[in-house]
Amino acid sequence: MKIYQVSDCHLQVGNTEANANLVCALQHIEGNGDGAILLLTGDLVCNPSVDVYEHFREIIETHVSNSEIYAIAGNHDDSQMMKAVFSGSRIMVKKTVKLANGCRLIFVDSSQTPLTNMPLGSGRVSNKDLSLLKKWSRKTPSIVVVHHPVVDVGTEWFTQIGIENKAAVVRAIHHHTLSVISGHAHSFFKVLVKEGVNQVVCPATCYGFDHANPCYERNEEIGIMYYDIERVGETFDVQESIMPINR
User: I need a surface site. Which of 26, 173, 193, 195 has the fewest CB within 10 A?
Assistant: First the structure.
């Protein structure tokens, strides 16, 4: 089972570079011709509007032929608007999907507004989604797909804009979960969530964040992720690869 992950595209009207970067990433995926699942893990647009989501949908459907494309919302997205615009297209918004090899994708919406006073860019997972995560991650070995990382990664300014109730999210993730994959950090990370469960963070397609700098600074390091999930008897092996984008 092969999966591509594209994250943090931040499409907006007039930003030709963000558009071009996304197209380049999609052409790379399409060029491999393996029909893999495509995950779009949030912050698809910068300022949500019907027009910009329609433009995003058009780019996706024009440049890749993948039949299984799943999207989740990020803190820059409007989840209801996104779902409405993507309805009837090849981009699906789901809560969970059972894959052909027997493992499951669990989609966790971290785009909810925090209940406490947190910086812009932070998120929260609803109690309903926490219950679904707990339920489904115990049923089958799963890959948890979420926009915000569920544990702290990166420099200090970035850790302040995470998930408000991240401890509850981590508790809901069963120990036989195969991997947690996210975006938001605009850089690659692989860190431990709990014993046996890793968090993999996808680079952005729009621009990178320099996490070596204590202050907010962008860089040009952009890319996507590729996962190969192999079933070996009753167990699964997940291998991830970073695919840099060079325009």
Answer: 195
Task: Report yes or no: 108 and 169 within 8 Å, Cβ to Cβ.
Answer: yes
Comparing CA positions, the residue from 24, 120, 113 lying closest to residue 73 is 113
- 189 vs 54: CA distance, rounded Å: 31
| Residue spans of beta strands (DSSP E) within 68-153 | 69-72, 91-92, 96-98, 104-108, 142-146
Quote the CA–CA distance of 225 and 202 in Å, as a whole number: 6
- 223-232/2-6 β-pairing: antiparallel
CB 147 within 8 A of CB 123: yes
Ramachandran quadrant class, 193 (left: phi over 0; alpha: psi -120 to 50; beta: rest): alpha
Phi-psi region of 188 (alpha: psi -120 to 50; beta: other; left: phi over 0): beta
| In the predicted structure, residue 247 carries a pLDDT above the cut 70 | no
SS3 122: coil
Among 1-5, 98-102, 105-109, 165-169, which stretch is predicted with the lowest mean pLDDT? 98-102
Q: Which domains are assigned to the chain? A: 2-244 (3.60.21.10)
State pLDDT tens for residues 19-78.
999 999 999 999 998 989 999 999 999 999 999 999 999 999 999 999 999 999 999 999
d(CA 29, CA 236) in angstroms, rounded, equals 24
CA 109 to chain centre: 10
pLDDT band for position 181 (50/70/90)?
A: very high
